[in-house]
Amino acid sequence: GRGLSPVMREAGRCRLGRAGTVPGRRGERGQWSWFCPGASRPRGGAGLAPWIPVVGLEIHAQISSNSKLFSGSQVQFAAPPNSLVSFFDASLPGTLPVLNRRCVEAAVMTGLALNCSINKKSLFDRKHYFYADLPAGYQITQQRVPIAVNGSLSYSLCIDHKMSQMVTKTVRIKQIQLEQDSGKSLHDDTRSQTLVDLNRAGVGLMEVVMEPDMCCGEEAAAAVRELQLILQTLGSSQAVMAEGQLRVDANVSVHHPGEPYGVRTEVKNINSIRFLAKAVDYEIQRQIEELENGGTILNETRAFDSKLGCTVPMRDKEGKQDYRFMPEPNLPPLILYDAKSLPANMNHQQVINIDWIHERLPDLPSVKREKLVEQYGILPEHSFTLLNEDGLAEFFESVVKQTHMKPKKVIGWILNDLLSYLNQHSLTVKESPVSSFLLADLLNLLEKKEISSTAAKRVLAELWKGEGKTPLEIVKEQKLELLQDQNELEWICQAVIDGHENEVIMMVLG
Amino acid sequence: QRVSVEVLDHLEHLALVDFRDSEGVERLQKAIQFADQLHEVNTDGVEPMDSVLEDRCLYLREDNVTEGNCTKELLENAREKVEEYFVAPPGNIPLPKLEERETFLQGS
Lengths: 510, 108
Description:
The structure holds 2 protein chains of 2 kinds.
Chain A: H1 6-11, E1 20-21, E2 33-34, E3 52-62, E4 99-100, H2 101-113, E5 117-118, E6 121-122, E7 125-128, E8 138-141, E9 148-158, E10 166-180, E11 184-188, E12 193-197, E13 204-214, H3 217-234, E14 246-255, E15 265-270, H4 273-292, E16 301-305, E17 310-313, E18 326-327, E19 334-335, H5 354-359, H6 365-376, H7 380-388, H8 392-402, H9 407-424, H10 436-447, H11 453-463, H12 471-477, H13 486-499, H14 501-509
Parallel strand pairs in A: 15-16
Antiparallel strand pairs in A: 1-2, 3-13, 3-14, 5-9, 6-19, 7-8, 7-18, 9-10, 10-13, 11-12, 14-15, 16-17
Helix pairs in contact in A: 3-4, 6-7, 8-9, 8-10, 10-11
Chain B: H1 5-15, H2 22-36, E1 60-61, H3 71-75, E2 81-82, E3 85-88
Antiparallel strand pairs in B: 2-3
């Protein structure tokens, strides 16, 4: 239909609460339908039982810290190969892990923001597997008792495409665990070798496990987007997917209503939130087609190919892995305290107080949105968009402070005019050639009725060129001032009437 | 109860050990028997202990950069290098299947 994004046209729209059909199948074996739980009777597919897709996510967020989880080497994105590597990171014999306090605080903050129970005692384990970028042959993780469990994340979705109706959904957080990142492998197929850079080996990660409460690509994407905003607000991770600071693996399966869950596949190599939605929807469709054709789903790992828009089996991951988990013998349990259990005579630097961290949590995106709605009288959908664009909420508030125009009117200029310009030119708010000062200046002219709103849009288009002119200068240049003089207005109207005698006569005659 | 050939083969794949001869397998067998003695103790309601150091304080380090920048030293041990990268085979080279490799386990 009109207005649907390409993703949804290809993969079949999952309309929350209503059935979606897989397009392109008309006239073939009938329409297959899949829908989110809680839907009414599904449309289409004479007699064909509908499918319920089930989507869970495993998200790895790189902790924003100066040094690594268990060593003092630097954490930095682009650096000469193997320059940010200590002897421990390279797994040279005789080295031992030393836990970074900042990484623990980041995990506690994130757990609290996601409504988790923080485990006052958590443990570290070794997960064994062989790969060139894992020099120790094992990863230190938290398999038995992770640092945080049983949380939840609320996120919003628009029911229709006009962004006029939003619905809130919740996904349960199974756990958050601290673990090491691996190094990076660069595959050189021409020389049949792999080049290994250990700069990333040992960087702290928070693995956030989301229960399979989602049902389609759109929900998965919205949940991850909200998590990204939360992490960025907390500062526990910068969560930039393009730089590998946020990596998402999706677990997907389908089943008929009332039947047990189907076999699930794991989808990896998803590099953006947009691709996440695509990958999940493709995999749901692939599984449905396979099962409808009488095939079976293998419990396998698949990679998303962004060029082809499909998932393919991954070569190196045949069969179930046996990680031979064992306790990390070099690290005693991690003990966290709260106000009640705080030990009297322990060195402050060695103590992490959960309550102290809780008191200092910043306002989460959901709270910020509510405050914007309450303070400025804008719609929830508006505040959603304000927070979705980096710096836009601050820009809006800055304009409101500098103008007499009501926030409810200002928001239109921000969301309809400014934002569409930014999107058209692929600019961030920070890169905007129109500052909040200039926009406020313009809106003041409009508010004082010195120009019409049509004229204001023309001035904005001119301001966009970034030539350093003020709104007033542009108004004068293009003679856009509204005439206030009654006599002059009458004179102009009379002149128009005089110049169009025939039309006037016809109008008078009715 | 003897350890099966399938499990021994599985272990050789996972840990890249080589049981080499009957003595090696027997040593493993005896180690398991020795550890099995633990089952004779009733541990109902007792939390497992992984280390006698479990009451020690886990030391927390301040988040400062104190290491790294020793590329040359690290690469000294590498058999092959390309422009400061370590060089590895293109992917994991799995151990050949039991039937296809020369191992003591074949005969058993």
